[in-house]
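User: Can you recover a sequence for this backbone? Please restate the input before giving your answer.

Assistant: Of course. Working from this structure:
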């Protein structure tokens, strides 16, 4: 499949080419790839009107906090002197505080408590599976309502299961 990008009103094709190249060469989660593309497009000239706002929106079914909505990532920066740099900081905070569902699903599959697909969306099986693992690892008190896992517990699980490190 060829690379496709759209934008308006940009300074020219060079901005779109930079966006497409960054998307194709950057690795990691889609939010990280979009941040890289946004920055690349901006460095190549960006919006010809000015630099006033920037946003990243990712939508997937039930992918929002606790599965309550479809907004996996929804960050917007307005009226900022350097708005294009800010979504990167917001995505990094998102990685720090939100447990990536794919990481938890991968861990649960690795230890035999989950047989579903690694989708990044908490289906019913992915919601039930952590209870056994958290009991075995004595992390019951670290599990928060609606599928959130405290940072300390997440770091502990990453140390216990280093096969997860660096996987998105």
């Amino acid at each position: 499949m060829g690379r496709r990008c759209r934008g308006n009103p940009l300074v020219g094709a060079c901005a779109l080419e930079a966006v497409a190249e960054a998307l194709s060469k950057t690795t990691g989660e889609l939010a990280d790839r979009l941040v890289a593309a946004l920055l690349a497009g901006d460095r190549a000239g960006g919006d010809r009107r000015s630099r006033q706002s920037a946003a990243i929106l990712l939508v997937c079914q039930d992918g929002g906090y606790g599965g309550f909505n479809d907004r996996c990532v929804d960050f917007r920066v307005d009226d900022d002197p350097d708005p294009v740099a800010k979504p990167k900081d917001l995505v990094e905070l998102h990685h720090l505080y939100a447990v990536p569902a794919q990481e938890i699903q991968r861990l649960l599959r690795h230890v035999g408590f989950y047989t579903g697909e690694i989708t990044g969306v908490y289906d019913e099986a992915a919601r039930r599976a952590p209870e056994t693992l958290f009991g075995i690892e004595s992390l019951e008190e670290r599990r928060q309502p609606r599928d959130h896992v405290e940072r300390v517990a997440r770091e502990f699980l990453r140390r216990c299961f280093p096969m997860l490190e660096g996987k998105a």
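That completes the design. The CA atoms of residues 137 and 156 lie 9 Å apart.
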